[in-house]
């Protein structure tokens, strides 16, 4: 069951996470919204570190929707196969690129609804691109955000969409995107899946997982 947090407690949790992770930001390397979109698609079931290694070489050769739209799948797979699920990712990136060229004048859509019309772009990917590339307020629920939201007690669900809705109700809207990055970094570097470092965590007194041990 989810805990009940008042606005002061939520603010304090975010403030303490900020103290722990002041440099929390998107760890995917990109120069344009399109490059970010490609990187986020590649990051499914893959680490950001691996994606950055792949895109460092990939974007030196191809980095526009027009270029990707004209590629064959095998040409793209040569660059991205180490990211896993490479055939689906190649297909989706090429199809999304064609849609961007044909339907959006070569520009990545700036809103979540149109982003989600692109191949391979679900709510999480759309939220990341919308918030990181365009400065919108959105909460992308990846495995870290899902795990921490349940551990802290913000929600009690393994459904990413339900977790997103719960967080949108609990967190101030102006903090959605920042909270997304703070939770990801906390999940990567402190509250890991197998070995959470509770003794180093500044929000343990608010944490359902810690207080239920």
Quickly describe the structure.
This protein is mostly helical and 213 residues long. It has twelve helices and no strands.
Average pLDDT metric: 96
Distance between the termini: 15 Å
Q: How big is the Rg?
A: 18 Å
Helix content: 55-70%
What keyword list fits this structure?
single chain, 213 residues, mainly alpha, 0% strand, elongated
List the helices and strands and how they pair.
Layout: H1 7-20, H2 33-42, H3 48-61, H4 65-69, H5 73-80, H6 86-103, H7 112-115, H8 123-134, H9 143-152, H10 160-170, H11 176-189, H12 208-211
Helix pairs in contact: 1-11, 2-8, 5-6, 9-11
Question: Can you give a write-up of this model?
Answer:
- The protein is an all-alpha fold and 213 residues long.
- The chain has helices spanning 7-20, 33-42, 48-61, 65-69, 73-80, 86-103, 112-115, 123-134, 143-152, 160-170, 176-189, 208-211.
- It starts with 6 loop residues before the first helix and ends with a helix.
């Amino acid at each position: 069951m989810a805990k009940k947090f008042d606005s002061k407690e939520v603010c304090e949790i975010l403030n303490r996470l900020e103290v722990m992770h002041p440099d929390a930001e998107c760890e995917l390397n990109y120069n344009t919204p399109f490059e970010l979109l490609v990187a986020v698609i590649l990051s499914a079931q893959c680490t950001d570190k691996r994606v950055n290694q792949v895109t460092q070489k990939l974007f030196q050769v191809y980095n526009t929707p027009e270029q990707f739209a004209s590629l064959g799948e095998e040409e793209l797979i040569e660059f991205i196969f180490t990211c896993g699920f490479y055939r689906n990712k190649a297909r989706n990136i090429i199809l999304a690129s064609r849609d961007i060229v044909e339907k959006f004048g070569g520009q990545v859509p700036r809103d979540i609804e149109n982003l989600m019309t692109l191949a391979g772009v679900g709510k999480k990917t759309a939220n990341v691109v919308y918030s990181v590339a365009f400065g919108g307020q959105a909460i992308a629920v990846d495995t870290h955000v899902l795990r921490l939201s349940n551990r802290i007690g913000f929600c009690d669900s393994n459904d990413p969409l339900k977790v997103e809705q719960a967080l949108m109700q609990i967190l101030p809207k102006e903090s959605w995107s920042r909270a997304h990055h703070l939770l990801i970094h906390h999940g990567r570097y402190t509250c890991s899946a197998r070995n959470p470092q509770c003794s180093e965590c500044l929000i343990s007194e608010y944490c359902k997982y810690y207080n239920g041990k």
